[in-house]
Amino acid sequence: MIKSVFSVIGTVLFFSVNAQLKTGWYRAAITRPDSVSIIFNAEVVLQNKKSVLYIRNAAERLKVDDIKLKGDSVFIEMPFFESSFKLKKLSNHSLKGVWLKGASNRIIEMPVLFEYSNKSRFVAGDSLNENLDGKWQVVFTRSNGTDRPAVAVFEQNGKMVTGTFLTPTGDYRYLEGTLNKNTLQLSCFDGSHAYYFSAEVNGKIISNGKFYSTVSAPESWKAVKNNNASLPDTLQQTQLKDGETKLNFRFKDVNGKTVSINDARFKNKVVIVQLMGSWCPNCMDESNFLKSVYKDYKEKGVEIIALAYELTTNEARSKASLQKFINRFSIVYPVLIAPAAVNDEQRTEKTLPQLTPIRSFPTTIFIGKDGTVKKVHSGFYGPGTGVYHEEFKKEFFAIVNELLNQ
Fold first, then answer.
1. How far apart (Å, rounded) are the C-alpha atoms in residues 322 and 7?
2. CATH number, domain at 318?
3. Enclosing domain of residue 169
4. 341: alpha, beta or left? (left if phi > 0; alpha if psi -120 to 50)
5. Do residues 264 and 367 both lie within one domain?
6. Reported pTM
């Protein structure tokens, strides 16, 4: 059984209250086994005489404040996900070491270098008057030759490019990069996923694209500019099985308390059931959104329950990872631990047998005041998708308000 990232390296370093990292910008490069580097930017600032790291992905700033130092050793714990850095200070204030990420059956370890006093991400050269602004119809091709659809939404400011890719199950969050002549480069790092995209741009055609994700086999991709680009309905949506009308579950939360959908607190309430995992970046965005929903709608008669499908069924590991998640987003609604891992092919049958197979995370289930399931929504478009996020929120609140009025 895999040990958590915390138990493997959490005791190696000891916090020193007087030690600090050099303030300023860093250019971080995570190196894959195929020698391809995934680049992101980070800034160290002092807050209350303590080093705090902000990871930059376009408009996003991820605050990382769990930093332990001893001598020239640095241990950085990401605020969510089973993710951390084990580093050494170099003479030029750069940091060199490894990024560690928990997976279902092992800990992924990848070399990383934080280059001090470098705010750039990629080299920004002549753009040859290419214009990436707008929507693009995208096709990704997996290493096994099968295709999957996506829509890219890009914004270009001079030679700087931001945007994201939308898929039937969610989005790739905040991407940032440059256009150098006709070479497009985009990347992001959020502690769970490390993404790097490259491609050639020629007018309304993007070709020779490569997509690198952590240690996964690279995918190729191509795109055509199309302001009417859309996602085909290729995902078989999760739904109630024929003859079923209600969910019936009772699982323990992170504190060991058993919570059931049939408990009195959920009677005559609109209930939102969030199927998620602490390993899932889109779930992170949705949880941040649902936290605000709960604050504004609890007194109106809305309850929320999160059901977490973790990387393993190791209870201690799941609790530790979920507690980080709960603490960072100040989640006050129940977060229950599903008794089946996310990669278990029988996860639906073991946890929510009233449903057809759960195919994506997050999945959101809306339950009416009468206790019956009214709607199931797969995936989540986060704030990095711009107008798609606004459209999602509009649909979400329309559903909730309709159920409250019933």
1. 15
2. 3.40.30.10
3. 134-225
4. beta
5. yes
6. 0.91
